[in-house]
Amino acid sequence: MDRRQRKKLQVQKSIVDVAIKLFIEKGVDETTVAEIMEGADFGIGTFYNYFQSKEDILKYALAEKISEVKRSLEELNQSSANPPQKISQLLLILGKIFEENQQLFKLYRNQSLSPIQPPHGPEFRDFLVNVIREGQENGEFRVTIPIEMVTEMFMGLIQSAITSRSLIPFQENLEYKLDLFLEGLTEKK
């Protein structure tokens, strides 16, 4: 990446960071492009070199988080971890990203924007199916449970932790659910 491209990315990141902060403080509708650009220390015209609307900023920020999940998936896929470890790491990665970005996800949902390919899209599903299949072939996971049921339960874990009304902190809640899930999935020896 050359110097000009790095500078463009820095400007874009600055605009996004200021905008998200203002969106969280004031709301998307109540935040103006002028306020965003004043906070980022750029002219209003610069905004339109990068984004067409405030909603585009939300889409961009969410797409960045999805890319982060996909990179983590690729790293995990290349790792030497066994299937139970991969399932655990995957859930904890997703939980961490959700926990760190709850306000961004809430903003996006509240705007009723058109869906962006979620992190549990085809690549995610393929990864999960392959890990489960590998675990079943290695005798680490029960073969009596269909893969479709395991993937459905896994996604339910994430949703359950996200919507939990428990007083247990989010990450700890997720870890308890993961233990229960793996206990039922692993082959008894």
Automatic annotation (TrEMBL):
Gene Ontology molecular function terms on file: DNA binding
Swiss-Prot/TrEMBL keywords: DNA-binding
Coiled coil feature spans: none
DNA-binding region: 32-51
Domain HTH tetR-type: 9-69
Alphabetical list of Gene3D superfamilies matching this protein: Tetracycline Repressor, domain 2
Matches recorded under SUPFAM superfamilies: Homeodomain-like, Tetracyclin repressor-like, C-terminal domain
Protein's name in the database: Transcriptional regulator
Organism per entry: Desulfosporosinus meridiei (strain ATCC BAA-275 / DSM 13257 / KCTC 12902 / NCIMB 13706 / S10)
